[in-house]
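Hi,

I'm pasting everything inline rather than attaching a file, because the server keeps stripping attachments. The sequence lines come first, and each chain or strand is labelled.
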Amino acid sequence: MLSRADNEILTRTGPDTLMGKLFRSYWLPVALAEEVASPDSPPVRIKVLSEELLVFRDSEGKVGVIEPRCPHRGANLFFGRNEEGGIRCAFHGWKFSVMGECLDMPTLEPASVPRMCEKARIKAYPAQEWGGYIWAYMGGEDFPPPLPHMEFALVPASHRHVSKKFQECNWAQAAEGGVDTAHFSFLHQPLAESDDQLAERAARATRGYSTQTMGPDHVQWMRDDARPRYEVRKHASGLVLGASRRASAGHAYWRIAQYLMPSHGYTPSATPGQTYHGQTWIPIDDESCWVYVYSWNPLRPLTDEEIEGYRSGGAVYPAMDDQWMPLRNRSNDYLIDRRIQKLENFTGIVGVSEQDAAIQDSQGRIADRTRELLGPTDIGVVQFRRLMLAAAKGVAAGTPPPGVESADSYRVRAGGIVADASLGFDDVMRERFGHALGEF
Amino acid sequence: MLSRADNEILTRTGPDTLMGKLFRSYWLPVALAEEVASPDSPPVRIKVLSEELLVFRDSEGKVGVIEPRCPHRGANLFFGRNEEGGIRCAFHGWKFSVMGECLDMPTLEPASVPRMCEKARIKAYPAQEWGGYIWAYMGGEDFPPPLPHMEFALVPASHRHVSKKFQECNWAQAAEGGVDTAHFSFLHQPLAESDDQLAERAARATRGYSTQTMGPDHVQWMRDDARPRYEVRKHASGLVLGASRRASAGHAYWRIAQYLMPSHGYTPSATPGQTYHGQTWIPIDDESCWVYVYSWNPLRPLTDEEIEGYRSGGAVYPAMDDQWMPLRNRSNDYLIDRRIQKLENFTGIVGVSEQDAAIQDSQGRIADRTRELLGPTDIGVVQFRRLMLAAAKGVAAGTPPPGVESADSYRVRAGGIVADASLGFDDVMRERFGHALGEF
Amino acid sequence: MLSRADNEILTRTGPDTLMGKLFRSYWLPVALAEEVASPDSPPVRIKVLSEELLVFRDSEGKVGVIEPRCPHRGANLFFGRNEEGGIRCAFHGWKFSVMGECLDMPTLEPASVPRMCEKARIKAYPAQEWGGYIWAYMGGEDFPPPLPHMEFALVPASHRHVSKKFQECNWAQAAEGGVDTAHFSFLHQPLAESDDQLAERAARATRGYSTQTMGPDHVQWMRDDARPRYEVRKHASGLVLGASRRASAGHAYWRIAQYLMPSHGYTPSATPGQTYHGQTWIPIDDESCWVYVYSWNPLRPLTDEEIEGYRSGGAVYPAMDDQWMPLRNRSNDYLIDRRIQKLENFTGIVGVSEQDAAIQDSQGRIADRTRELLGPTDIGVVQFRRLMLAAAKGVAAGTPPPGVESADSYRVRAGGIVADASLGFDDVMRERFGHALGEF
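And the predicted assembly:
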């Protein structure tokens, strides 16, 4: 439960907000690289942290994230022509580089151009392509921090898949879904008349995700223990969150997630050798967000089958249209099927991503955290809020945000393991990752 | 004409309004029983008096009208699973009864459940099935009043038909249409080149309604006397409103409506033996309402033909889609046909319900009653406003609302009669109903 | 660049605004005459300067522009029946003339009608049909000024074509597009690999407009001189704005526009004998406007080919649906084609009107003029703003608005000419129009 004031701080990310300043301290993914695929390809309108921006790639392949407003008469550069080293306004031909420099002002006498060009510089955020995404640094400092060394961006392109999905609620409640691994025992659960049916029903409810990450035993453990025990450790770039469930005699099934500043989450299921998944929640405005979704395998290229599955909806990916809008969404109640909810799975909705979206969106455009009844399985959510609120208030007070200066503090992993029930969390971490905080 | 302040009181029915408190003193229909047809059927989202609620029927057939918000993390119980005695939240499995009791909290240690369950009680309004509708009592008292003994709910199910229709304006102007029986001489009038054509044209304009309740003479009397004389009597549960028109020599054609607290209206046409009709206006919010529409015959079951007529649009029922949205509505100007308006009926719109909706909606989302020019035929409207404003102000001052404690004060009828022109209203009432106020 | 206060004055035209008062000093086109084509034809809802009004034509062919609200109970007269000398409210039959007089009150005792009729007068603006449009005078004075003697309204009906188009931005930035003739060198420019291709590409980009008004030389001059020299002269009813570009040796290509109060603009291309075009920007509200578009030839009837071209989209007319909504509009990014923008024309959008709308709408619903960098080619825009702001402030101070009392001050022309480079603007005007200000 939060005070109204803290709920506002947590959820508001516009230009003059505390949380907005915290987000702006980090590099953020703002588009898929494929959206501006080639030199001089069409510019793309984006909205990030309530700011309307334009992404484009110039003739040399450099990427720009700029204010879309031409300083001459205020026309939108989206309609401009992306040509020979810059984007040229369609109204009177003023031209701008990816850095926001004014390169040409054909309506002015040549003599006055140099002086006027200085005044005509437009806001441009440092931008880079990294791991299949376009990233921008929307902070005000001259020198942006290093890009975070998240593993999906470090592996060869053949070893990863990246996409995004639209979500119709505030970023924070979506992110809370990522640190709350307890809900798997309900939201994503299959229903079955016998244990024999369970694995197959789970596969159908999660569109194959459960079979990629769990055996039939795991599904039963998830169903049978709705009260995982949480352990949370803070580290340089965020939190590692472990939750253990009773497994076969003398064993515990641990699912270990990572939350990395400001809004990256790694899912907790993968066992060694399996493909990892992550999500990054980037506010469009305070009532919707893009979830950048990615998968990677450090050991091998992704298979065609994996990629086809991600593209058509599966694992952490919803089935989407060509604008990355999930086909099951708020407007159609996620195609909930009440007969399936009676007989086959707990929600009547198909797909892990869709089930998450349904329940997170249902908390309201912006969840009201002033009325809640939190318990032991909500420890992850509580720690997430403390981390974010402390960091946001810290930035305002001049404290450097966690992890921002250390690219390598992002070199951590998340995943699952069945361990001896007597082992403590630190030992489990060492067994699974070779490091108590998951560093690699 | 009302002051701005009184217009606000009349039209605003949210939680902290005077009129809202008055409405909340009574049982209100909030859904069709068929919307939650069977035990454990899917829950249904409703909005009543600006409150978002959830209706569901539990495994034993009991009906619940509850706040849809799970007190754990604020997820919406609409996505919950209706199962074994309650609805279970899809996020983490907390479960609630139709009374709002928390029945299960699987994410908590069993020892802490009893104490937490107390805190996790959700708002639930007393709910009952009655006359084919689900009714809720949204007042704060422990003991709700008795259900109103309206005749349509007292007769056997075979003797009634119930439905509802969506209307895109404030409840009060729609209700005013029900007490204003003078408008029939215009809004619902046919046009004809000769009197011979009149009855057939009326039938077409009203989609058969006129032939069910009037002979050709009645249609002419309605056309020829646009200034009915009004008589209004207050009784325990509301108002009875008579309006007389000149009929054949020495006779008067009386049409007598009932208005019952807080927002039920009976139509004035039925002669003895004919089927009666009623409407109840329940605010969704201040700019739209559900009109619960019902028909009943105390003497016999409704015929298949009657029911088929009501279902496809006729009498007081519009043609609707399967979500009870009239096919002729604000968005399409009620399919007004200007050629028909020239030649066949006064509005160019087909259907009594549709004609009412068109003109009521046209008064604005919330009619501005600070600029009006009322006359003698508006006496019904004036008395309705006085009744409602006095009752709303009375409730705030501690006066019990009219009729609320007396179920039998709702045992009244409305209808039409051709009477000797010399008879006063009380005698006409006795002749038509055997009682001066229409009691039966 | 304007102060925030002046930008508000320039753009706000509701009932109690300075610019709104200025607009209300003039006759304004408010509908096409064809929208109320014949006596007793259906009434038409319009919104002008943020006021909701109703246009109708009575049995004698007289046109009314009235407040649509029946003073009885506030029903909308749009649903009324237009019959025998007035429009009759569909609710209770009150009837009103084109002058706003109440003609009948059938629900009242005849004795009280005369007194009540006085009170029941509704607001009606003087209205006239003129040049194919319905014009209204929305000022408060008893005696409206004369209608402006704009040439398109003076020529025989066979010599003109009139239409309108919907535009989704504030009126002023659309009007600024009309006085800014410099943008033709970019917004409407073709792209070509060789000069030989240029004229044909221009024709395609402008959907034939360029070939109607320019030879191949003109297209090249437009492309090659992006810095036209501006000359602006104030006259009794507005401004004449000349812009010259370098042409063949020793010559200048002049394009001369007229801006007439309060919001009429004549396009600058026509050479003697060619058909003229004009646009009048009338605010619907502050975020959208109707652009009344017209073409006329003082010397001859328009040809079928011309009219067919205007109807299907060409010259200053966009391709539209039957509600005058351009098919290329804000909602579909004007069907911008990025391949065409690379290869064939500067915007990738087809049509002069569509190109204008795209860039004007892109300035925002209401352009922010507090951040601009104006230069010499923006002199027309600057003079337009000065004229409008001075006139609006003048009206508030009691100064008569420019031109309002002189119908003949609107007898001016605009157009293009290739003149000797040594001639000054006044001499060029005399050569092209026989008068230094374009009077005829």
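Residues 379-396 of chain B form the longest helix (18 residues).

If the labels don't parse on your end, tell me and I'll reformat.
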